Amino acid sequence: MPFSAERLLGLRWDAKRLTQQDLQDLSGVDRSQIAKYEIGKSQPAGDTVVKLAEALEVTTDYLYGRGFEGLDVRGAAAQMAYAIFAADESLPYQQRERCGRALSHAEAPRTTNAWRAFSQMVDLVIGPPGSQGQLELVRGKPRPRHQKRR
Questions:
Q1: What is the SS3 assignment for 24-91?
Q2: What distance in Å separates the CA atoms of residue 55 and residue 32, rounded to the nearest whole number?
Q3: Cα-only R_g, the chain
Q4: d(C-alpha 75, C-alpha 58), whole Å
Q5: Nearest CA-CA partner of 23 in 75, 15, 120, 129
Q6: Where would you tag: which of 5, 10, 61, 89 has the fewest CB atoms within 10 A of its CB?
Q7: What would the pLDDT profile of 62-97 be if each residue is shown by its tens digit?
Q8: pLDDT, tens only, 87-125
Q9: Rounded to 5 degrees, what angle do the CA atoms 53, 59, 65 make?
């Protein structure tokens, strides 16, 4: 199966919002080559596909057009980034599992760093795994009831 120029462009721009220069910086693949791959003018070698896949946090199979049929590029990017995030055993299982519930959302995180940030936000709002899930963003003395809000 040939390399999918459409998936590369979709991942880079639609899903990850990266410029060609950003992808060059992340992958080490020359920007002009990335441009040729995206328009189908050139096919990357296997080692280049690996570099691009690692930089975009996807599988090489995905860049060859295999897998994630039925998902748009954003959904596929979210699924693959979550898989990397969920493999991080330094995070409690409950924390990884409850973040996974967001996968069906159209704006689910599309990078592992975004999943980590989302996980921290979830902890801030409902507390760490195993907590009672009470919302308490600001700790301190409660304001007297008779004091007006500003």
A1: HHHHCCCHHHHHHHHCCCCCCCHHHHHHHHHHHCCCHHHHCCCCCCCCCHHHHHHHHHHHHHHCCCCC
A2: 17
A3: 20
A4: 12
A5: 15
A6: 89
A7: 999 999 988 999 999 999 999 999 999 998 888 888
A8: 999 988 888 888 999 999 999 999 999 999 999 998 888
A9: 100
- pTM across the whole model: 0.79
Q: Which amino acid makes up residue 22?
A: D
State the residue for tokens 């990884």: 96
Residue in this structure with the two tokens 């507390």, named with its chain if needed: 127
Place of tokens 């691009």: 52
The pair of three-digit structure tokens given for residue 19, joined into one six-digit string: 């410029």
Q: Which residue has the tokens 């570099």?
A: 51
By residue count, the chain amounts to 150
Q: Which two tokens stand for residue 136?
A: 């308490």
